[in-house]
Structure formats: structure tokens, C-alpha cells
Write a structure and sequence with these properties.
Helices cover 48% and strands 19% of the residues. It is α+β, with helices and mostly antiparallel strands and 797 residues long. A 6-stranded mixed β-barrel has the order 4-5-10-7-9-8. Strands 15-16-21-18-20-19 form a 6-stranded mixed beta barrel. It has a 4-stranded antiparallel sheet with strand order 14-22-13-23. The C terminus is likely disordered.
């Protein structure tokens, strides 16, 4: 029986080549897109799942609010881990590590820069279950001046030589470190990443005892069966006990009063396996994922597959008149409905099998470009995994059942008497279900179009937004501390060359100003959380900043070492309306906790020194000295950057003593903040175009159905047009003009209905589309909801 089903199905497939090709291509594209999206989603969900006992590991995050300024951080206080181990028996183990980016190393005459280097406690290797290739995981990080390298970094430095016991030099100070271990490269599907791990005993912040200074990442592992909420309650007690003491000491008020004033400070636990997709902090080691994107992509995959299935249904029903007589004859000679349903489902399954092979071929061709687009490293090994093969076969059966169910039950419901008497058309002229399916197709397509528009308009807005300073043609030079006493000589030599317009040293440059501290106004004793930027006297001109009032730092005024500038956001929160020359602001930097006040000599116009996800926050700018500077901003004259950078490198080598030459451009640094969104936007755009293309095949089915059902009417109208062109019957000619519209009017109405529904939905949910950004583009959802998409702005209806 089944052999006969597939024989007849194959015969029908060969007989209707165009119809079959459209079905197979549509289903194949839909399956390929869905599989690629599924692979992407599964990879995102796999992050940190490989870490031993990962379900029992948590991280301590800090969040709070001061004077309306909210802050969140993935880091916490240095005493957090030892206090948990001492006071909470439910905590099995804890580890701390600090993060250093673009960290320099030297080996003999070779200089290297590693993107991510950690400074960690001795139990770091065992805590995260790292695979130790060389060395002892128990002792590799015990004691100062020790470093563990990843396998790829060890091979880059030492080739095939054994690196154990050898020394490399670290940082701008060229401090010697002994290589005490080599670990396997950490898997990429983790929120953690590193190229080397240095013993934490080398860094001052491992000795801190301050609970309100958050410089270190703290992870802890619970005893099996421990309720995380119990630990959270205990940590809340830490805030009252330890943080409260420091707030009282520094601010002079108890924690309760601090909170009653609208401020807050808290330490929250976050599960290790939730960090990648659910973290909302800005100081993650790697850019986190987005749970909302996974939901969106899953919906896109399902909808693309449904659109392809709907195409199959519409094309099948469009050919209903051609298959009606076949059904009538089969029923009249005794075929029951069950066998006819089986016949049509067999055809559907056959189409799905061919479409499945086409989908696999498409994946083989497009997987590498898709990896480049999505920033993934998905391989072809999944094609032979039993789980994938089982899921693939099941998906073929489900798609075949979904795509073939409506045609199978619809076509087999015809009465043989009605069919053989030729009365079928009057009975099936209109189909509400088919119209609903077309509306649904373009409802989904329009949602994808609007989503793409929103994402790209928001990204364009962020890239084109006036940041308040001129980020174009500005180069950021790293590792300038390596210049030592040669800093000013380097700067003079640089500015003596044509092509270098301005230069300024700073502790950090936008968009990475990550030092914040509580500042207190002397007159009102008001405490404000501010970002701190330490610069030299040329910073204003180099970045193109603007003064709202007062002046900038000057070499001629020696007292400026004790002066500061603030931005307009800070001035507003400090309650000042104008600069009168008497205002002072201080920080809690003395060992005894007393405030060191500095005179405010100028107010900067607000500028975006962070990601556009945040509104401009209070900023304090101080004049620094040689040991404060880590970076240098250099404004280049527009032109041949290659020659300028080559000359810059020559001057750098002259003064830096062989330190690595590393640089970036500020405009590129800002764009990198939204690299993930850019990739997600590209993926959405591509699959939107694909969904629209597949949906257009559905229009072909609708047009074919309309033409087939109204072929006599078309012939009559065509005859009328012929007479109109001959001048025989002007009235008939006007009637014939309707031939150009009547075949498409119904289709246009269905498209318009789908777009209106989608635009109304996006209008009701518009805030979520751009909710993550402090600055937002203007998107006219109301005109979309009124039907004013580009295709409908001419008043066609």
C-alpha cells in the first residue's frame, strides 16, 4: 500500500515540475533556516554547561543607587570570598580573580599583548576544572611572580620547548614571572575567557579590606543540596554588618538612613549558568548574550517553517480543481477517505524528504558564512550525531504532517457526485482558512520587517549620534606607562611631526571610563557617585570637548594639581546652577577616611564617555601625573593613516624600551560596544528577507488559485479589453480595465490586513524593542499602525 502511495506521489511530482520545485525549494529554505537558527540557539544555551559542578556555582554581583544614579557590577569586594568561607558552612569553596585587558608580556626581544589576563587565587584551576597540561594545579599559582599560560599562548611564546620554569616579563614595569603551568585553551562557549593567569599575590587589590571598593570577581560553590536563597539572606546580613559600618564611617550616616534617603547598596547572587544570557552588567569579561534574542530567533525559526508549510497548503489547494476529478474517480471505484488521506500525506512526506536533503546541502554551503556572521564556531560534526539525526527525521515527519494535513483532509472531503458533475468551483470558491493563512504569513513577515527596521535604525542612531566630542581621527595608544620618564619627550617628538595635531595622556579614554567613586560637595555635604577621569592639560583640545563655564587645566597654574572639572550632569546633581569659583568637591581617598577637597575650576558640557546604553552620568576630571596614565589620545590629520601609524611606531620604539605597540581608534571602540547587536541585526535582516521570499511563494499559490477558479471571468474580461482597444465599445473597455486589478485586489487586501495587525502589535510593544538603550532613535510606530508602510503610502486602497 505504502509503495503504491509513494509511486503515485513520485509520478505526480514528475508531472508537475514547477509546482514541485516551488514546494521543495520553499520547504528546503525553511528547513535550512530553522536548522541554522536552532544550532545558534543551542550553542547559546550551552554556555558554561561544561564546568564541573556548575549548577552549584554562583557569583556575587553588586548593585546600588546614589542620588538617583544606579550602578551594577559583576565585581565585588575583596573580603567577600574569605568572609563567606569563614562564616557560611554551606559554602564549599570560593575563588577571586581580577581582570586585565590588553596586558603586555615580553620574552627576550619579543613583545606580546594578550587580550585577557587574570590575576587569581591559587585554587582558580581546580575551582573551574581546568585541564592542566603541564605543572601542578595545586601549586601553580601559590606564591608571587607565577603565571599559568594557555596552550595556544605557550606555543606562541616557546614553540615546542617546555615552558615550565622559564621566565617572561609582564606589564609596563617588566616584572619577571615564572611559568609554572600550561592549561588547555578554555572553551569559547563560556562567559569566562583568559590567555594567562597570574598569581593574585602580585596585585594590591587582593590585600584590600574595604567592603565598598569593588575590584574583584568573586565566585563560590555551594554544598550539594544548599538552598541559594539561604545564602542570599546571609549575604544581605553582610551588607548590614560590613557595608553599613563603612557607610557610617565614610558618610557619617547609618545604613538605614542611607536607604531612607533613596539610596541603596546590595550584593546579589547569580547562578554561573545564568550569567551569559541574563547578566545586565557592563563589566563582563566577554559581551553577554541576550535571552530576548534567543526567544526572537526561536520564533523566527518556527514562523519561517510555518510560512513554508502554508505555502505548501496554498499551492495544494490552488491545484484542487486539477486533483478533484482524481479524488472523485477514486472514491467512485471504492477508495475510502483514509487511503486518500494517506496518499496525500505520502506526497507531503516525499516533498519533505527532498526538501530535507536540499536543506542539508544549503547548510553545508552556508554554515561557514553563517559562522562569520554570527561570530560562532559551529562545525559539521553535528550532522552525524544521533541526536541531530533523530531530531531531523522527527522534524521531517512533523513538517510533512503539518504541510500535508490541510490538503489531505480538504481534498478528500469532496463529494464524488459534485466533482464528477463539475460543480466543485461553486462549492470551494472562497476559503476563509486559506485567506487567514496568507494574512498570517504577512503578519509574521511584517513583524520581521519592522523588527529589522527598528534594530538598524537604532544602530544607525547610535553610530551617528553626536557624542559631545569629536571621536573621528583619534587614535588611542596603549601601554604608555612603559614610557616612564620619557612620556613628555615622546609627546614632543610626536607633535613635531606633521600629521599629529594634538596628543593627551589619560588614565583611560572613552568609552572605557570605568573608575567611579563617591564625591562630596563641601558646601552642602551632598554625596554623589561620579566617574573619575585623570588627564593632562591637553585633553580638552585633543578630544574636542567643550566648556560650559570656567576653564580647563593649565600648565601655567601650578595649583591645578589640586583642582577638578565636572560635567553638567554632576553640576545638576550637586544642586549648583552656576560656577562661582568657591565650590569644592572631595573624595574619600585618605587612609583615615577623611575627605580631600578640590576646587572646581570648570564645567564641561555633557558628553558620552560610556556606552549609549546609559544616559550621561556625573563625571569628575582631575589633573594627573606620569604614574597615573595608561593611554594616550592622539588626533591625526585626515589622510594616509598607514604612513602616520608607521611613523608613530618608529617614535614609540625610540622611547618605549621595546614595549608592545598597540593602538585602536576611538570611533571603532564605540562601534565595538554594539558589535553583538550589529551581528544580531544582520541575522534578523537575512532571515527576514528569507521569510519574505518564502511568503511570496505563498502569493504565487494564491494567484494560481484565483486564476484557476476564475478562468472564465478572465477570458470574458480579456475579450472586453480586445474590443476596447479596437474602439468598438468604450464602456466595455472601462469594464476590461478591471482585469488588471481584480486578480490582485483580494491579495493586496490580505497583505494589507497582515501588515496592519503586525504594526499594531509592534506599537503595543514598541518600548521593549529599544529598552536597552539610554539614547533612542525616533520610530514612527503610529504611521506604521495606520498602514503607512512604504508600499501603501500612495493610497492604493
Amino acid at each position: 500500500m505504502w509503495k503504491n502511495y509513494f509511486t503515485v506521489a513520485l509520478r505526480n511530482l514528475k508531472r508537475n515540475k514547477i509546482y514541485s520545485a516551488i514546494n521543495i525549494i520553499g520547504l528546503g529554505l525553511g528547513m535550512a533556516a530553522s536548522i541554522l537558527i536552532a544550532l545558534f540557539v543551542l550553542d547559546e544555551l550551552s554556555y558554561d554547561q561544561f564546568i564541573p559542578n556548575g549548577h552549584r556555582i554562583y557569583r556575587a554581583n553588586v548593585s546600588g543607587k546614589m542620588n538617583g544614579n544606579e550602578f551594577t557590577s559583576s565585581t565585588s569586594a575583596t573580603p567577600m570570598a574569605p568572609t563567606m568561607l569563614n562564616e557560611l558552612p554551606q559554602v564549599e569553596d570560593a575563588v577571586r580573580f581580577g581582570l586585565m585587558r590588553t596586558f603586555p608580556f615580553r620574552l627576550e626581544e619579543k613583545a606580546f599583548t594578550e587580550p585577557i589576563v587574570l590575576a587569581a587565587d591559587p585554587n582558580f584551576i581546580d575551582f573551574f576544572g581546568l585541564q592542566m597540561l603541564k605543572g601542578d594545579p595545586k601549586t601553580a599559582l601559590v606564591g608571587p611572580d607565577r603565571v599559568v599560560l594557555t596552550q595556544s599562548v605557550a606555543e606562541k611564546y616557546f614553540g615546542t620547548e617546555d615552558p615550565l620554569g622559564k621566565s617572561i616579563f609582564s606589564g609596563s614595569e617588566n616584572k619577571p614571572l615564572e611559568v609554572t603551568g600550561v592549561v588547555a585553551d578554555f572553551p569559547v562557549n563560556s562567559h569566562l575567557a583568559f590567555d594567562a593567569v597570574i598569581s593574585g599575590e602580585n596585585f594590591w587589590y587582593f590585600e584590600q579590606e574595604n567592603w565598598t571598593s569593588n575590584n574583584i570577581y568573586t565566585y563560590y560553590r555551594l554544598v550539594e543540596g544548599t538552598d541559594p536563597q539561604q545564602i542570599q539572606q546571609a549575604i544581605n546580613g553582610f551588607v548590614e554588618k560590613y557595608v553599613g559600618e563603612e557607610i557610617l564611617a565614610f558618610l557619617g550616616i547609618p545604613l538605614k538612613t542611607f536607604q531612607e534617603q533613596g539610596n541603596d547598596y546590595g550584593i546579589q547572587t547569580m547562578a554561573l549558568q545564568d550569567i551569559y544570557l541574563k547578566s545586565a552588567t557592563n563589566d563582563e569579561i566577554k559581551a553577554p548574550g541576550n535571552e530576548q534574542y534567543l526567544i526572537l530567533f526561536t520564533a523566527i525559526a518556527i514562523f519561517i517553517l510555518l510560512i513554508a508549510c502554508i505555502n505548501f497548503m496554498n499551492l495544494a489547494t490552488a491545484r484542487s480543481a486539477n486533483r478533484a476529478k482524481e479524488v472523485g474517480v477514486r472514491k467512485s471505484i471504492g477508495a475510502n477517505k483514509g487511503r486518500l488521506v494517506g496518499q496525500f500525506l505520502a506526497e507531503s512526506f516525499m516533498y519533505c524528504v527532498f526538501a530535507g536533503f536540499l536543506a542539508l546541502a544549503i547548510i553545508l554551503v552556508l554554515l561557514k558564512p553563517f559562522n562569520a556572521l554570527a561570530g560562532k564556531e559551529l562545525g559539521f560534526g553535528f550532522l552525524i550525531q544521533p541526536q541531530f539525526l533523530l531530531a531531523f527525521i522527527l522534524s521531517l515527519l512533523v513538517v510533512g504532517l503539518i504541510a500535508g494535513s490541510y490538503p489531505a483532509f480538504y481534498l478528500t472531503s469532496f463529494s464524488p457526485v459534485t466533482v464528477l458533475k463539475g460543480k466543485l468551483r461553486s462549492g470551494v470558491k472562497r476559503s476563509g482558512l486559506r485567506s487567514g493563512l496568507v494574512v498570517f504569513q504577512f503578519f509574521i513577515s511584517t513583524i520581521l520587517i519592522i523588527s529589522s527596521m527598528v534594530v538598524y535604525k537604532q544602530l544607525g542612531f547610535m553610530q551617528a549620534k553626536n557624542l559631545g566630542f569629536d571621536k573621528e581621527n583619534v587614535l588611542s595608544l596603549l601601554h604608555v606607562r612603559a614610557l616612564g620618564t620619557n612620556q613628555e619627550a615622546f609627546k614632543r617628538d610626536l607633535l613635531n611631526q606633521s600629521g599629529f595635531l594634538e596628543a593627551s595622556f589619560a588614565n583611560s579614554l572613552p568609552p572605557m571610563l570605568d573608575w567611579n567613586s563617591v564625591m562630596r560637595t563641601k558646601d552642602k555635604q551632598q554625596d554623589i557617585l561620579c566617574n573619575i577621569n585623570v588627564v593632562d592639560e591637553d585633553h580638552l583640545e585633543t578630544l574636542g570637548l567643550k566648556l560650559a563655564s570656567g576653564r580647563f587645566f593649565s600648565r601655567e597654574i601650578t595649583a591645578d594639581t589640586g583642582s577638578i572639572l565636572i560635567n553638567q550632569a554632576a553640576m545638576a546633581q550637586m544642586g549648583w546652577t552656576e560656577l562661582d569659583g568657591t565650590q569644592e568637591v572631595g573624595g574619600f581617598w585618605s587612609e583615615d577616611g577623611s575627605v580631600t577637597y578640590r576646587k572646581v575650576v570648570g564645567v564641561l558640557e555633557d558628553y558620552n564617555y560610556e556606552s549609549l546604553r546609559q544616559n550621561v552620568r556625573p563625571l569628575v576630571m582631575m589633573l594627573g601625573s606620569r604614574n597615573d596614565f595608561n593611554e594616550m589620545a592622539i588626533r591625526l590629520s585626515p589622510g594616509n593613516y598607514a604612513d602616520q601609524i608607521k611613523l608613530l611606531e618608529e617614535i614609540w620604539k625610540k622611547h618605549s624600551g621595546g614595549a608592545p605597540f598597540e593602538y585602536s581608534f576611538l570611533d571603532a571602540d564605540f562601534n565595538l560596544l554594539f558589535q553583538k547587536e550589529q551581528k544580531m541585526g544582520n541575522i534578523i535582516l537575512i532571515f527576514t528577507v528569507l521569510a519574505i521570499g518564502i511568503a511570496c511563494l505563498g502569493l504565487f499559490g494564491l494567484a494560481a488559485y484565483t486564476t484557476e477558479q476564475r478562468s472564465k471571468e478572465i477570458s470574458i474580461r480579456s475579450f472586453g479589453r480586445f474590443h476596447a482597444q479596437s474602439g468598438d465599445d468604450i464602456e466595455q473597455g472601462f469594464y476590461a480595465i478591471g482585469l488588471d486589478c481584480f486578480c490582485t485586489r483580494r491579495t493586496d487586501q490580505l497583505l494589507f490586513s497582515g501588515k496592519i495587525l503586525a504594526a499594531k502589535l509592534c506599537l503595543s510593544d514598541r518600548d521593549r524593542l529599544v529598552d536597552d538603550f539610554g539614547g533612542r532613535s525616533d520610530i514612527d510606530f503610529h504611521s506604521l499602525a495606520d498602514g503607512q508602510l512604504p508600499e501603501f503610502q500612495n493610497g492604493s486602497f
